[in-house]
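Support case: heme C complex. Customer-provided input:
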Amino acid sequence: MTWRAAWMLAGLATLGACAEEPDPRLLAMTGKAAEGRDLFLRLDCKTCHTTNGERGIGPTFLGVFGSTHELQDGTVVTVDEPYVRATLRKERRVPRKGFDPVMPDYSRLTEPQVASLVEFLRALK
Ligand code: HEC
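Agent response - structure generated as follows:
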């Protein structure tokens, strides 16, 4: 094998290792979405929310932004920026249907932090 082929194989092995990280979608993020991702990891949202479509203690974040679903009182809501804000500040009293009311209060987050989390959710299509 030439040194070039060996170098390419080494490169592929590295990519393979990256693919085993929790979620390649997270690695691909840039800008505000990446800031939101770091908050997601640091604030332990990941304890209850996945980014790969699997249900956790809370709903998955994959594809949640812009989606429509029901709350426990039958109200139909769209997950948009105001809804995410209200959720983080615990201003939305009625939990999503099928989930327990255990979403913590994140009112302490700053406005730029909330904006980054919104961009993070928007990027998880
Ligand atoms: C202890 C578990 C837990 C943690 C930690 C948690 N959440 Fe949640 N979250 C939930 C549950 C359960 C729901 C669904 C019930 C509800 O609507 O309140 C939810 C709902 C949500 C929703 C609304 C989703 C929808 O489809 O309506 C958003 C957005 C959200 N969480 C964002 C976050 C973010 C961002 C963090 C981290 C800063 C976080 N959550 C941390 C449990 C958690």
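The mean pLDDT is 88.

Case will auto-close in a few days if no follow-up is received.
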